[in-house]
């Protein structure tokens, strides 16, 4: 979303009557004014911008000395007085309080020492087992959350894999559709060539028929013309002409036989 659209939307949002009446968004308006003065508009953070944010981990208690004194107290004296600085401070300050009777060692003090010793014994004897049981409950609780998260993560990964598989199948359907179109085109080409061959055969039959018909007509014409010529020639011959032709043939026959050597 660009800066112009963001400004326009924010102005319309701040001009809503219910919002202007309740004045519940003064901070938002001030933030908008400051953003406008700086020449920039705030953008909504998405999961893409927070992708590299480290995941929260379970916090562990800090280290202690003597069961209840934080280790940071000792480390604060290391740079100035060395390792024994904090115990020395406690001893000297405690001696000062006791000597000046700022801290009176009455009977409650000795009862406190007894309770402290009893508490130390309880912590040393029962504390580790109790800590293990509590840590086990925490681990079980954390493992339950991890298992739920891993299960949901696996479900979404399987869903993504299934979606990718469906996309590949859709691409395969496109290839199959293209193959079917090509097959239909081949069938159309086959049918076209088949019908073209049928047309060729039928046209050839008709042409052969016309050729045969013309040949028969020529044969009949030749035969009829020969018969007609023969008939007309025969009509022109008379009986005397026939006898003359026969006599001529008989006269030329010996000459033909002599020339042939018969």
From TrEMBL:
GO terms for molecular function: proton-transporting ATP synthase activity, rotational mechanism. GO terms for cellular component: mitochondrial inner membrane; proton-transporting ATP synthase complex. Residues 153-180 form a coiled coil. Pfam families: Mt_ATP-synt_B. It comes from the Eukaryota. InterPro entries: ATP_synth_Bsub_B/MI25, ATP_synth_F0_suB. It is found in: Mitochondrion; Mitochondrion inner membrane. Keywords: CF(0), Coiled coil, Hydrogen ion transport, Ion transport, Membrane, Mitochondrion, Mitochondrion inner membrane, Transport. The keyword Aminoacyl-tRNA synthetase does not apply. The keyword Ribosomal protein does not apply. F-type ATPases have 2 components, CF(1) - the catalytic core - and CF(0) - the membrane proton channel. CF(1) and CF(0) have multiple subunits. Belongs to the eukaryotic ATPase B chain family. Subunit b, of the mitochondrial membrane ATP synthase complex (F(1)F(0) ATP synthase or Complex V) that produces ATP from ADP in the presence of a proton gradient across the membrane which is generated by electron transport complexes of the respiratory chain. ATP synthase complex consist of a soluble F(1) head domain - the catalytic core - and a membrane F(1) domain - the membrane proton channel. These two domains are linked by a central stalk rotating inside the F(1) region and a stationary peripheral stalk. This is ATP synthase subunit b. It comes from Agrilus planipennis (Emerald ash borer). The lineage of its organism: Eukaryota, Metazoa, Ecdysozoa, Arthropoda, Hexapoda. The gene is LOC108741372.
